[in-house]
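Journal club prep — side note

Before the paper discussion, L.F. wants everyone to see what a predicted structure for a comparable chain looks like in token form. Sequence:
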Amino acid sequence: MKEIILQKVDKLYDEDKHNEIITLITGFQGYEKDFDISGKLAVAYNNIGEYNKAITVLESFKDAGATDPKWVYRLAYACCEGTHEYDKVQKYIEDILADIPEDNADEDVYKDLASYLVDCLANDVNNISFKKRVENFWIWFTENEEKLSDMLTKMKAQDKSIDPASISDFANEGVSLISENIYFNLGGDFEFTFTCEGNLYLFYLTPYIVSQMPEKFKEKWTFTPFMQGDKSDGFTLKMKDVNIAISDMLVAVDYENDSGDFNIKFYNEHVCKLDDSDSYHIFYLMMDMVTGEAISNLYIGTVDKSDTKLDGMIPLSDLKEHLIDTLEKNDKQYFTSPQERFTSFQIELDDDEYSPYRYDVTFGTTSFNSLLSSYYSNDNAINLELLKMGAVAGFLVLINEEGLELGEALINAQNASDKISTYTSSIELGRSIGSYIYIDFITYDIKEFLEKTPELLKDYPCKFTFSYYKPFSTTIDL
């Protein structure tokens, strides 16, 4: 009987007869005890806007549903699209996304849940802003600088009473006030270096931490936002029981003038005999040490392992100098931070009245290609990482209601962006042009951004709205 009911429900669903589904299921004796049939009932309630009824049905199966992606999706739909009770569903989504199976059979479900988690985090009143987290870190550092300084001094003097690991553990007490996902190195003459560890979004966060350093520490301490690359020829890395000198790792470099990228082939007799995961891991680690994390991210295109030594290969220790020289010879500007390098793009998209914002875009500039691409692929991974640290990726939409010439509208966009970047804790990521003009930002305090921006924009002859950096996000008039 159950299978017959489910077949009828599926047929009615295809015909958009959701009220008939409700009548059919509620007329089935014992439906309220059946997980599958009740799930279909919740879907029907969602589809006619009876979100509270859907939530009641779903919550009667909390134990069974908590590990079921479809159950969590149905609850997320009701809470996020309907009642806006984001706190009811946030933990369920986080747990599901933390345990995605390798075969990922329901990929669309997980993508949709990630999108709903963006909504949950954006509306989480307990999610401390990145700006406040950074303030808390510098308060901690001010209170503990003397102790941290003493520990580093003892370590440098090779005082056996101090364990280097204890210094990192102590410093992590402060850094964890920002996030558990920020990495750092301590050493040298009071040097504190944040590291991005391949997480591109951190390039847009760690510079802000350094920029907020209290003036009184600047003569003594050197804080850097990511690894700068300063290892000499004599540096040796020991991994997999092999000592590898930087100068013994060889690279062939192919420069693409159009993109400004460098494609790399690497060779080392010992490293290239290892399996791919180990050999590539070792090379990327060594390359970051030589060039710095930002340069690797900005200028390195493809990286391939070579089975043999190739003609024209140079020592890895010479790579950074080679990159800089090549860029200069080709009249390309050399950037040291991803925030600084803006690249142009052109796209063609299918745009109609049902398309989200940005599908009208034809060209623009960006300093964060991965974030831009993620919008069109409905991938919220970067959004989520930023939000977990209290930062928000979003964009302003400049709506040219007054019929300004494009050049004049762009001047308004430029002036608006400059004002926002000056008076709020935000950075511009780029602009796109289509039927509207879009200005992309990462803001370190979304509450401050939304409170200050309307006043900053009130005298412009354009209408502005704000959207989070995901398709069909709720827009906020400014």
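L.F.'s comment for the group: Residues 21 and 27 are 10 Å apart (CA to CA). Keep this in mind when we get to the figures.
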